[in-house]
Each structure stands twice: as C-alpha cells, then as structure tokens.
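ok new one. same drill as before - structure tokens go in, u give me an amino acid for every spot. 118 of them this time. try not to just spam alanines like last time pls lmao
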C-alpha cells in the first residue's frame, strides 16, 4: 500500500461519539491502533481472520469506515475498517475495492457494504 495515498474518505460512526479524520491509509491504521484497534484482520472469502481466530459476519461490527481513492492509480483505492468483535476484540481491516477488491461471499459483501451505508 502506498504510504502517501491521499484522497477522498468516508467516515461512518456507529458507537463512537467523537469524529476522527485521517489523510492517509497509514494515518488511519496508526490512529486506530493508538485507540485500541490492535488486531490486524485479513479478509477471507467468508470471514475475517487474525492468526487462528475467525470472525464470520455475525461475529463482528464495523464501528468506523475510512475510504481512500488514489489520485491516479485505481490500484491505490482502499477502505480501512475499524472492527469490533462480539467478544470485545478490536482491530483493523484494510481492503482494496474496485479493480483490487478481494473475492468474498455475498454475506461478507453485504456486511462490509453495510459499514459504508449505515
């Protein structure tokens, strides 16, 4: 991921009362980690994972979303999700969209899309 990625971002808050704005993907990830979102989630087809732990769509909530668009390269487009598991675990998921989007089940697409529209 390009550390100097800048662009338009979208912030959606569900549980937090304060608003946060980050200019870059790196700033968003670092800011979320400082605020307790310490797990590094990866996207699989039907869940998100951190080490051996798997979280299916019903096992987590999206608490914040930051969307970034690359200035010239569509491959630089990314979404940063602040995730909170039903068990209290908090972490960050960075995912591409558009051309660089990962393959997912319809259920995961719906969950991640709901994070943009709530």
């Amino acid at each position: 991921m390009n550390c100097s990625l800048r662009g338009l971002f979208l912030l959606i808050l569900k549980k937090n009362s304060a608003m946060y704005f980050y200019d870059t993907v790196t700033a968003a990830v670092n800011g979320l980690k400082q605020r307790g979102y310490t797990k590094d989630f990866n996207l699989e087809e039907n869940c998100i994972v951190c080490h051996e732990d798997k979280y299916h769509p019903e096992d987590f909530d999206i608490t914040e979303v930051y969307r970034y668009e690359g200035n010239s390269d569509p491959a630089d487009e990314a979404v940063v999700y602040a995730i909170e598991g039903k068990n209290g675990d908090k972490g960050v998921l960075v995912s591409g969209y558009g051309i660089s989007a990962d393959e997912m089940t319809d259920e995961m697409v719906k969950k991640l899309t709901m994070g943009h529209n709530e």
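Residues 106-117 form the longest helix (12 residues). and btw The chain has two helices and six strands.
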